[in-house]
Amino acid sequence: MVSKELGYPMINFTFRNLAEERQMDFWDLAALAEKDDSIDFELDRRQVEMALAQKDCVLGSRLAIWMLKEADLKIYLDATVEERARRIHEREGGALEEKIAETSARDAKDTARYKRLYDIDNNDPAVADIRIDTTRKSAAEVARIIVNEVRSRTKNS
């Protein structure tokens, strides 16, 4: 929504994309990444390269605000684990309780891996310009907040 409204390309290259490229199941790739650091390094490198190839873009990823140091605006989106699992459940189906457990487990593993690989605490939004709790906001509301902030900064620069 943000990229469309601003006319910027959207870059959101994720583990899911990499799993598709490698013709692997997402969870199999996630498990492999716990043992093979090159997967994270490749994913993060490719995202940054894609973003730097653009004049302006929207980069969406769990580590974007830390990886793309050159970003003009860094936004940390947050939501409760229950809300994030509900959204995954809505998108993918399955049992909600299972999605909550999977999301919690993935969070813990990712947080430990990011700390080990990059010394990043992805639960600390201190490097962000803005933190938005999306738990009770629609995607359109979140997009409007971000677009307004971009336009405000563009006007003032």
Q: Sheet with the most strands? A: 2 strands, parallel
In round numbers, the mean pLDDT is 94
- The CATH topology annotation reads as Rossmann fold
Overall 3D form: globular
User: How many structurally independent domains?
Assistant: 1
* CATH homologous group name: P-loop containing nucleotide triphosphate hydrolases
CATH uppermost class: Alpha Beta
Distance between the termini: 23 Å
* Low-pLDDT residue spans: none
Discrete helix count:
8
CATH architecture label: 3-Layer(aba) Sandwich
Q: State the order of secondary-structure elements, H for helix, E for strand.
A: HEHHHEHEHHEH
DSSP strand tally: 4
Features:
157 residues; mainly alpha; Rossmann fold; two-stranded parallel ribbon; globular
Question: Could you give the topology of this structure?
Answer:
Elements: H1 2-6, E1 10-11, H2 15-21, H3 26-33, H4 37-52, E2 58-59, H5 64-67, E3 75-78, H6 81-92, H7 96-118, E4 130-133, H8 139-155
Parallel strand pairs: 1-2, 3-4
Helix pairs in contact: 2-3, 6-7
Q: Overview of this structure, please?
A:
The chain has 157 residues and is mainly alpha-helical. It has a single domain, classed as Rossmann fold (3-Layer(aba) Sandwich). The chain has eight helices and four strands. The strands form two sheets. It has a two-stranded parallel sheet with strand order 1-2. Helix 2 crosses helix 3 and helix 6 (81-92) crosses helix 7 (96-118). The relative contact order is 0.14.
